[in-house]
Specification:
With 176 residues, this protein is mainly alpha-helical. 59% of the residues lie in helices and 0% in strands. The chain has four helices and no strands. Helix 1 runs antiparallel to helix 2. The protein is elongated.
Length: 176
């Protein structure tokens, strides 16, 4: 290409990946990792609080008729399931993520799937849905999406070990 002054313009060669590409992927991995921890902690705390509330108040103000078509006669068992299964799996996932265990992604996926199953079951039993159930359904889906990303499902976002020894940049808080 020739400019107005008659000199050749230098056009830089295009590269498939700019130098900052790997830094950007590392930053995205860090954000994804901490977002997964935040989702698991949020869901664990919510499940524990919701379960305790169900048991302590006899349903958090929900009518007893919500249980008519289901297997439960009181809100105690749903509260215990919410605490033990939903909250427990989310708490375990958060703890394993914070401990940087490779099994954390498996437990995070199981906990996210558990949240989705809980919401489907709950909305089916009460034959209705509120904005809170939509929120928890969305957080369960988000949890699964982040796990899939961290597992390297997208070729541009390759799988990296959660171990600080193999990927120290993922745990460097100063990068955020």
């Amino acid at each position: 290409m020739i400019s107005d002054s008659g000199q050749r313009l230098q056009i830089p060669e295009r590269t498939t990946r700019p130098e900052s590409w790997s830094a950007m992927i590392d930053r995205l991995r860090v954000v994804s990792f901490w977002a997964l921890i935040a989702l698991a902690i949020f869901q664990a705390v919510s499940a524990f609080a919701g379960g305790i509330g169900l048991i302590a108040t006899g349903g958090l103000g929900m009518p007893q008729s919500f249980l008519d078509d289901g297997p439960f006669r009181s809100f105690v068992w749903p509260g215990l399931i919410l605490i033990g299964v939903v909250g427990g799996s989310q708490g375990l996932a958060a703890g394993l993520l914070l401990a940087r265990r490779e099994s954390a992604l498996l437990w995070s996926a199981a906990a996210g799937f558990g949240m989705i199953v809980w919401i489907f079951t709950e909305t089916g039993m009460i034959r209705g849905m509120s904005w809170l159930q939509a929120l928890y359904f969305a957080t369960g889906i988000a949890q699964l999406v982040v796990v899939m990303a961290l597992l390297g499902v997208a070729s541009w976002f390759p799988r990296t070990s959660l171990s600080p020894a193999s990927m120290p940049a993922i745990f460097d808080h100063q990068d955020l």
